[in-house]
Automatic annotation (TrEMBL):
Keywords: Transferase
Stretch list, region Disordered: 43-71
Presence of keyword Mitochondrion: no
InterPro entries from the UniProt entry: CoA-transferase_III_domain, CoA-Trfase_fam_III, CoA-Trfase_III_dom3_sf, CoA-Trfase_III_dom_1_sf
A molecular-function term among this protein's GO annotations: formyl-CoA transferase activity
PANTHER family, per the entry: SUCCINATE--HYDROXYMETHYLGLUTARATE COA-TRANSFERASE
Keyword Transport among record annotations: no
Domain of life: Bacteria
EC number: 2.8.3.16
Chain intervals with Basic and acidic residues compositional bias: 43-63
UniProt name for this protein: Formyl-CoA transferase
């Protein structure tokens, strides 16, 4: 069930103005919100964040009928307050400036130069609040020949090299470049943004007394996330092979099909290889010169798999998972989604929480994986309806009265 706040969160002293939409920015904002920050989400009146409409699937209400809440939107916007403001209007721009003066952080993902036209760029807001940490998340960054181009995750997966190393090898069934099922460029950019924001806040509070500007790009994030694969290319000049589920640096290390599903196996060292061979009923394999070392096994992977594949297929997957676990060899099931959330380890770690939603009651949500002993993550508010907190926030921060709110609403500004 939803946890109730019993203590201040780790970031409960911070206020964040979230002008971002869709995913990378909202993902960063949700991370800060989960850790206790007050996050104010600014959305267009009547329209809101584009992600609200990115479905199916949509949340089903207590009667089983689809609502207007997309799963995509719900995944990145809990613990936030929604304020609807038309920032194309001078009155709306004034509201954002007033809010920014009382915030520690601003997150935005508008096209390069868009917010400068409204007087909401970093230079303009820094003049009002020198302590503001201002994070701009764009596809290609603020500099370079592509800086004004639009882009989405799949574009960056292709441009950033992820698709080059994902999928089966050319010539194999289904071979060729593949896109990862998750929007990993957005996820990585959101995580990098969270780290950058916290670093800038620490520098402000411990060193300079001033905020700073963060220029964060999805393409940069995707290239950086190539990590060891990119380093392998940079130090060797050799292209990184597409191996499907196989590891390019270890064998046997891949998916094997069993009678009732599949398992992922990783044999990471000599001791594991010897134990694995014994479990498989093939104790002679470590003495075979084709398979003596890891490099030997990589060179002769097809011959090794010709031996292993029928053995794996002779038993159900749980047999191998249990037998290899007892021997200390890493092996796990290849789970479908329903199996993920039925897994006893996932259940024990409480990776699903429930929050009270006005149209669903107890709504299941993915938990935040961060475990802090003194200031644990709190699930305070479900993802907000569009403009749900407009009056509350504008009364609390700029100090608008009822007459001013009515005028702004009548004029279509909020």
């Amino acid at each position: 069930m939803q946890t109730s706040p019993t203590h201040p969160g780790a970031l409960s002293h911070l206020r964040v103005l979230d002008l971002s939409r869709v995913f990378a920015g909202p993902w960063a904002g949700q991370m800060l919100a989960d850790l206790g920050a007050e996050v104010i989400k600014v959305e267009r009146p009547g329209e809101g964040d584009d992600s609200r409409r990115l479905g199916p699937p949509f949340l089903r209400d207590d009667a089983g009928q689809p609502t207007r809440d997309s799963g995509f939107y719900l995944s990145a916007n809990r613990n936030k307050k929604s304020v609807s403001v038309d920032i194309s209007r001078p009155e709306g721009q004034a509201i954002v400036r007033a809010l920014a003066q009382s915030c520690d952080v601003l997150i935005e993902n508008y096209k390069v130069g868009d917010l400068a036209r409204h007087g909401l760029d970093y230079a303009s807001l820094r003049a009002l609040n020198p302590r503001l940490v201002y994070c701009s998340i764009t596809g290609f960054g603020q500099t370079g020949p592509y800086r004004k181009k639009p882009g989405y995750d799949s574009i960056f997966q292709g441009m950033g090299g992820l698709m080059a190393i994902t999928g089966h090898a050319d010539g194999e069934p289904g071979g060729g470049h593949q896109k990862v099922g998750l929007i990993v460029s957005d996820l990585m950019a959101g995580m990098y943004a969270s780290v950058a924001i916290l670093a800038a806040l620490e520098h402000r509070d411990a060193v300079s007394g001033e905020g700073q500007y963060i220029d964060l790009a999805l393409l940069d994030s995707q290239v950086a996330a190539l990590s060891h694969s990119a380093m392998g290319y940079l130090v060797s000049g050799d292209p990184v092979p597409r191996c499907g589920t196989k590891s390019p640096t270890a064998a046997p290390s891949q998916m094997y099909r069993c009678q009732d599903g599949a398992v992922m196996l990783v044999v990471g060292n000599k001791a594991q290889w010897e134990k694995f061979a014994s479990v498989m009923g093939q104790p002679q394999l470590p003495g075979d010169p084709r398979f003596a070392t890891n490099q030997d096994r990589i060179r002769h992977r097809d011959e090794l798999n010709a031996i292993l594949e029928p053995i794996f297929f002779s038993r159900p997957k749980q047999y191998w998972i249990d037998a290899l676990a007892e021997a200390g060899v890493p092996c796990g099931p290849v789970n479908e989604m329903h199996e993920v959330f039925a897994d006893p380890q996932v259940r024990e770690r409480e990776m699903v929480v429930h929050m009270q939603h006005p149209r669903r009651g107890a709504m299941p949500m993915l938990a935040n994986p961060i475990r802090l002993s003194g200031t644990p993550v709190q699930y305070r508010m479900p993802p907000p309806d569009l403009g749900q907190h407009t009056d509350e926030v504008l009364v609390q921060l700029p100090g608008y009265d009822a007459a001013r709110l009515k005028q702004l609403r009548d004029d279509g500004v909020i």
